[in-house]
Design a protein that fits this description.
This protein has 216 residues and is of the alpha/beta class. It contains seven helices and eleven strands. It is globular and about 40 Å long.
Amino acid sequence: MRVTVIGGSGRTGRLVVEKLIAAGHTPVATIRNAKHMAELVKLGAEVQLVELDTSEFDVIVNAIKGSDAVVFAAGSAAGETSELDRKGTLRTVRAAEKAGVKRYVSISSIGASTGLSTRAMDAEMKDYYRQKRAAAKHIAGSSLDWTIVEPGELTDGAGTGYVTISRHAIDAESVPRADVATVVVAVLAEPRSIGTALQLTRGTHPIAAALKSALG
């Protein structure tokens, strides 16, 4: 499977790229900074330079064209507005539709689709969830075969291979980025995940079993 990974040089996106390669897929990593190109090419990925908010729309379309799926793993960096999460989603969804690529998997944040209260959050986090929810609404209203993965707080380090996955609200525990990447690769080829938003945290169930249980 050929998969365009939007934000392929980010901490989570790079792990998705690595997991795709390990599973025998062909990732196309979009990056914002050319300094990341050599390391991704060395891994075995194809690379496209894309600025989600400023690149010409056809640049995004061309990065996606010919792929079997898109993974949205991009996000706003420190000091940037969370608007990029919404705008980047909107532009990549439209680009996937124009490129004729139906499968779309987005990495969001826990509770974005389950009504998690933002009342006690600071202004920055409230805006972050506002943008994530607007992005999810756009994805769900598209013509794509979509899945949204909503992980808890992301941690670095090795994955455990054990998680909790649910279609309903769960406690907002943390989860290793490596396990998130593994789940993303797993749902890409799982047609039962189409049209679902999946809550994801660390847990006690092997990833394959947790996904199977969540999807019924």
